[in-house]
Amino acid sequence: MERLSRRCASCLGPESEVAEPWTVLIELLDVLCRRLHMDVAWLGQFEGDLLVLQVVSGDLDRFGIAPGMSIRRSSSLYGKILAGELPAVIPDVRADPRAAQVASATEFDMGAYAATPVVDGEGRSYGMLGCLNQQPCPSLGESDAGFLRLLAGFLSQFVIDLRQQWEMRSGVWRHIRSLLDEGGPQVYFQPVVELATGRVVGVEGLSRFPTAIQGPKDLFAAAATVGLGPELEMAAIRNALRVLPDLPLDVTLTVNASPATATGGLVDLVVGTGTPAKVAVEITEHDYIGDDRGLLLVADILRGHGTHIAVDDVGSCYSGLEQLLHLRPEVIKMDYYITHGIDVDPARRAVAAGLTRIAQEIGGRVVAEGIETVAELEAVIATGIPFGQGFLLGAPTPSITDACRGDRLPGHLGAGRRGRVA
Asked: Strand 112-119 to strand 89-90: parallel, antiparallel, or no bridges (unpaired)?
């Protein structure tokens, strides 16, 4: 098995939406690991002289293996097995002179190895099913080789669908990779306004993909399914942070990050700007985070550097309230669903008032998202919410200067409130 080189990454971790047949295959590979007492099991598809690993299971870090990595047939153990030069099961790679001479065997210091071909339901060659172990496995024998072949035969009913899914995922990966290679998303900035004065107190960096058919939300979701979600988010954050030197002193920049991105290097990026206190990090994912100690630790570290923590879409679901209670954010973004129609719905006004009270108790402040009409703005102000964001107050713009400019309250409402404040 030669040094693995990264190709189409297909993330099958907890963030991915893994559908059939991927789930079944992972379970079968788990069974194979246990049956043969091996560290790692894998299924790969042939692409010319390469075997591209599609599904892997086990202690991946031990060998540096991940979905989407490729192995060259000409200098690998699986190639020797495929050519009939080695048996399907090698209990002690180091003690077998035929196996020990293969460069990858010594490079990865493998102790035991097993592999067998896989064909699809129409009898066409598909790839290889295999497993490996760091230590020799003297107990491996012909019965284990038989079990491996039995499982490979069983997989034939899945691999046609798997090939189709792999091609689809590979296409998504190439598309996201191309966007990253082009510099990542463009960033537009939408103002956050102090409703008592109309003054811009912050801007939120929003990703835009002018050349893409899909919208930002769909593209970030697609990136997550192929393991590129954090990389795409980090590219967007880097592009947003470039405007920090151009921000007015009293304006904060908000960037969006999922928990995986926040715990994957965001601290160094924000602190490395030299002005972390001018940044707010908005946690954008609503999965359960109560026991995510890594995320809570990152939030505390960022706070220690003066960075604010925000949570979005609060009020739209129970998980948003859970985030609020665990993270105790400085900024609470009230969801558009609550803002829209708040002027005609007493229940929405009650939720808004409740969030304002919660914010007061935890030392935070509420921003009402999605304000689109004067009536909604007046109702938001009446509930005691101090800050707002939405198309009525300012549409996203690529110009940071335009995003920070001027009194944002509309017409007579702005003039009237300025008079009362004065």
From this structure: antiparallel
In the three-class reduction of DSSP (H, G, I as helix; E, B as strand; rest coil), residue 5 is classed as strand
- Which residues form the domain of 267? 185-421
Are 132 and 202 members of one domain? no
Same domain for 279 and 227: yes
Looking at the fold, whether 215 and 153 belong to one and the same domain comes out as no
Q: Three-state DSSP class for 89?
A: strand
Same domain, 329 and 365: yes
Q: Are residues 273 and 394 in the same domain?
A: yes
Contacts of 201 (CB under 8 A, 6+ apart): 192, 193, 194, 250, 251, 252, 387
Helix (H) or strand (E) holding 361: helix 346-362
Given the DSSP bridges, would you call strands 186-194 and 5-6 parallel, antiparallel or unpaired?
Answer: unpaired
Could you say which of 121, 140, 167 is where a domain stops?
Answer: 167
- How many domains are there within the chain? 2
155 and 234 part of one domain: no
Mean pLDDT by 10 residues, the chain (422 residues): 33 40 81 93 89 87 80 85 91 90 74 91 86 92 92 80 71 88 95 95 95 86 86 96 96 94 93 96 69 85 96 63 79 92 95 91 93 96 96 96 90 53 34
- Dist CA 202 CA 82 (whole Å): 61
Q: What are phi and psi of 69, to 5 degrees?
A: -80, 155
- Tracing tokens 């495929």 back to the chain, one arrives at 82
Residue 111 lies in a domain: yes
Strand partners, 368: 334, 388
Whether the Cβ atoms of residue 38 and residue 140 lie closer than 8 Å to each other: no
Which CATH number do you get for residue 405? 3.20.20.450
Q: Would you say residue 172 lies in a domain?
A: no
Say how many residues make up the chain: 422
Task: Return the ∠ at Cα 129 (arms to 123 and 130), rounded to 5°.
Answer: 155
CA–CA separation, 136 vs 140, rounded Å? 9
pTM over 0.70: no
My answer on whether 291 and 201 are in the same domain is yes
Angstrom CA distances, 385 to 25, 78, 360, 363, stand at 51, 64, 11, 14
* Closest residue by Cα to residue 264 from 229, 290, 303, 289: 229
Closest CA to 57 of 40, 45, 34, 37: 40
